[in-house]
Write a structure and sequence with these properties.
Elements (H helix, E strand, L loop, with lengths): L5 H20 L11 H12 L6 H4 L18
């Protein structure tokens, strides 16, 4: 196989190696995240927002304007 550039060849090599690794590992079960949007929002405020300068902006999701999102499960 001939490629137009070195960059394209490297990209295809990485893609090929990833596919080989996927085949080598075999079929895998789907991973599920059993977290809700509300839990994610609380985690974000408690753990991530503290380290940011814009903490006040992130705290705006604490009193969530759309509480209907709280029970929704997140998908990976």
């Amino acid at each position: 196989m001939v490629f137009d550039s070195y960059k394209t060849a490297r990209s295809e090599e990485h893609r090929f190696n990833a596919r080989v690794e996927e085949v080598r590992l075999g079929p895998r079960a789907e991973t599920r995240i059993d977290k809700t949007f509300g839990e994610l929002a609380d985690y974000s405020i408690d753990n991530r927002a503290k380290r940011k300068r814009s903490c006040k902006d992130d705290e705006s999701i604490k009193p969530r304007p759309v509480p209907i999102l709280d029970p929704l499960l997140l998908l990976s």
